[in-house]
Amino acid sequence: MKKRLSALAVSAVLALSAVSCGKTDNSDTDTVKIAYLPITHSLAVLQEAEELEKQSGLKVELVKYGSWSELLDALNSNRVDGASVLIELAMKSKQEGIGLKAVALGHRDGNVIIVSNDIESAAGLKGKTFAIPHRQSSHNILLNDALATAGLTIDDVNVTELAPTEMPSALASGQIDGYCVAEPFGAMGVSLGAGKVLFSSEELWEDSLCCGLVLTDKFIDERYDDAKSFVESYKAAGNALDKETAKQVAEKYLSQTDEVLDISLQWISYNDLDITEDIYNTLTEKVKEYGLSDNPPSYGDFVKNDF
User: Fold this and answer.
1) 94 and 223: one domain?
2) How far apart are CA 196 and CA 192, in angstroms?
3) Is the pLDDT of residue 245 over 70?
4) Which of 90, 162, 254, 288 makes the best surface tag, with the fewest CB within 10 Å?
5) Tell me, what CATH number does 168's domain have?
6) CB under 8 Å to 290, separation ≥6 — which residues?
């Protein structure tokens, strides 16, 4: 009898652990589970989480992850209904047969090329070590674009993948000579005095795509009305997210100083988050040009813009 009770107790603990880690299936029809990383690129979905339930009764359960690989695993296995994610990672999953749709941008602009203070131009990156968060990222594309302004290619630099949180300190210590990553980590490097902005994203790639809001096909197919309400509310939240409101949301969800947030929020906006065919096709051209993918998904297969 004691062994039986012990086994039941263990099962209960495991069940509670699964709930706390966002590992359960999505059986709550009044809730949409959205995965995110604590970055300024996710602020629109964080803002929406507080507004949607008031408007429609649909609750947004935010599931925080510490890395893109963890978040992507949850998204690809339907443990969450959607995510704010690097769009190139979602494109790769779609290419591999995962049922996903990109339904909106995460933000506009908001990325910078940060370099050590002694580098004056893209030409100065030759032979240097440059960090990106993931090969499948707009940060990789922006690095390629920056190098192209000086007639250089990715083969002219030593590219390393680092966790975003490590990049500012790695630049300060001289382990790397520059980096490009989701905010607010670029702003952290500037705030520390470790580096400076060489390029902003719009200088290199007008209307660049970076993070996108992605929903699973399962969620869209089984709960279409909820998906429609969620996307409409999300886009409205983005349009309402001015600098002051964005800072208030960032202060609540991100552990950053006022100075870092003030710097970071200069570079980003959240209005007009539709993914148009023109800007998506530009992305797919760059993905192919820079070797991220030979066969990215088409606009019609991957983007849903008709709720």
Assistant:
1) yes
2) 10
3) yes
4) 288
5) 3.40.190.10
6) 140, 141, 144, 154
